[in-house]
């Protein structure tokens, strides 16, 4: 679900990942008002609800028949789910310790401001950026926002003092991500999360805590980009291990100049939502004989004689919808319901659930007129 976007900080490339989409009616009941063409929401759904809406209905043909004749019931389902804009959350984690001198800090601030410009936040409303730093201790200067001017203002407050502690800084960044995810049904189902860690080289004695702090972020699928914020050459083996991989590590020069390119993924900024794990269950009442039909396209239902239920299961619903059918022979004569009203349940691409119940289809059954001798 992630696609690579190349960001070049001056001469040093860094890869950012970016994730960067008419109803049929039930057969009219003779002598009764027409039924509502919209399928009814089923109140028994208790999981996080799907946003998919179904244009659905059941109809029979013929709707007028003689006793002993059969009719075909057709269920038509078409989903409209829209799309899901995948949020992109970026935490700029800056180790503003006393190992970074004033000149390095100024260059670092300049590079971060250019990064904010290149993210083009006004035209990318689903992108939010936070700023955390390590001065006297880990602190969040700004929580996730889509506000370039505020970010630049807070970048100007970065300091170069205090003792370095990359582990505490990463823990703070992880906390920012967790707070933004929400909980329960308000939780975002898919988020592209990126840490850009700007840190001085980590001493060997502090390496294990930093690696230990990085593991849960990587385990959550968070991309770790690391930039060595020191101009002087030092042992940077630990920083390389903190990064998601060696390709996501950059030397100090990576923030010395302007960012030259940030490709915007045009077709990857969203996720097309569709129903999956679709189940349709129709129950036949008394006086309805189920007549199996040839299963030419794998669309025949499973019939449970004990519960008198018909069940269809599908893992995919085409964009033009799906049509299901069954044949029954109703008796005795009269206005006959040809089912209890199919219950349709699904789980969509975002793992959210939905259910609807269709209107019952009807047919009028007549006894044939007696033959005159």
Task: State the gist of this model.
The chain has 373 residues and is α+β, with helices and mostly antiparallel strands. It has helices at 102-119, 148-155, 166-181, 204-219, 237-242, and strands at 3-9, 12-18, 40-41, 53-61, 64-66, 71-80, 83-85, 88-94, 127-134, 138-145, 192-199, 223-228, 249-250, 259-262, 270-272, 275-283, 288-291, 302-304, 309-314, 322-330, 334-337, 343-348, 353-357, 362-366. Strand 22 (343-348) and strand 23 form a beta hairpin.
Compute the CA-based radius of gyration: 31 Å
Secondary structure: number of strands: 24
Number of helices: 5
State the major sheet: 6 strands, antiparallel
Which runs of at least 5 residues are low in confidence (pLDDT < 50)? 1-45, 254-268
Strand content: 35-45%
| Terminal-residue CA separation | 76 Å
CATH class of the largest domain: Alpha Beta
Quickly give the CATH architecture of the largest domain.
3-Layer(aba) Sandwich
Name the shape in a single word: rod-shaped
| Strands in their spatial order, largest beta sheet | 3-23-22-16-19-18
**What is the H level of CATH, i.e. the homologous superfamily of the largest domain?**
von Willebrand factor, type A domain
* Topology pattern, helix = H, strand = E: EEEEEEEEHEEHHEHEHEEEEEEEEEEEE
């Amino acid at each position: 679900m992630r696609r690579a976007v190349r960001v070049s900080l001056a001469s040093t490339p860094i890869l950012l990942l970016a994730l960067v989409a008419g109803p049929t009616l039930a057969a009219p009941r003779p002598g009764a008002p027409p039924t509502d063409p919209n399928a009814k929401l089923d109140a028994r759904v208790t999981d996080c609800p799907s946003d998919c809406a179904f244009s659905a209905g059941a109809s029979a043909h013929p709707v007028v028949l003689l006793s002993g004749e059969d009719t075909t019931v057709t269920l038509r389902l078409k989903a409209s789910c829209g799309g899901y804009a995948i949020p992109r959350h970026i935490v700029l984690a800056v180790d503003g310790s006393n190992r970074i001198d004033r000149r390095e800090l100024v260059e670092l601030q300049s590079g971060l401001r250019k990064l904010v410009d290149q993210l083009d936040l006004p035209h990318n409303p689903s992108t939010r950026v936070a700023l955390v730093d390590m001065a006297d201790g880990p602190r969040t200067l700004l929580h996730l926002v889509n506000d370039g001017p505020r970010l630049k203002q807070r970048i100007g407050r970065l300091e170069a003092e205090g003792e370095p502690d990359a582990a505490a800084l990463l823990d703070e960044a992880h906390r920012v991500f967790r707070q933004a995810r929400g909980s329960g049904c308000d939780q975002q189902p898919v988020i592209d999360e990126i840490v850009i860690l700007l840190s001085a080289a980590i001493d060997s004695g502090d390496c294990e805590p930093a690696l230990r702090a990085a593991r849960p972020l990587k385990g959550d699928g968070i991309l770790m980009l690391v930039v060595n914020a020191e101009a002087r050459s030092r042992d940077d083996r630990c920083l390389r291990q903190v990064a998601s991989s060696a390709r996501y590590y950059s030397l100090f020069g990576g923030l010395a100049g302007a960012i030259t390119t940030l490709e915007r993924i045009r077709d990857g900024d969203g996720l097309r939502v569709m129903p999956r794990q679709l189940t349709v269950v129709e129950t036949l009442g008394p006086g309805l004989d189920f007549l199996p039909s040839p299963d030419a396209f794998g669309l025949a239902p499973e019939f449970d004689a004990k519960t008198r239920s018909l069940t269809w299961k599908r893992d995919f619903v085409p964009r033009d919808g799906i049509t299901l059918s069954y044949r029954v022979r109703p008796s005795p004569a009269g206005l006959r319901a040809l089912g209890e009203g199919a219950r349709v349940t699904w789980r969509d691409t975002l793992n959210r659930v939905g259910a609807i119940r269709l209107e019952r289809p009807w047919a009028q059954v007549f006894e044939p007129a007696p033959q005159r001798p």
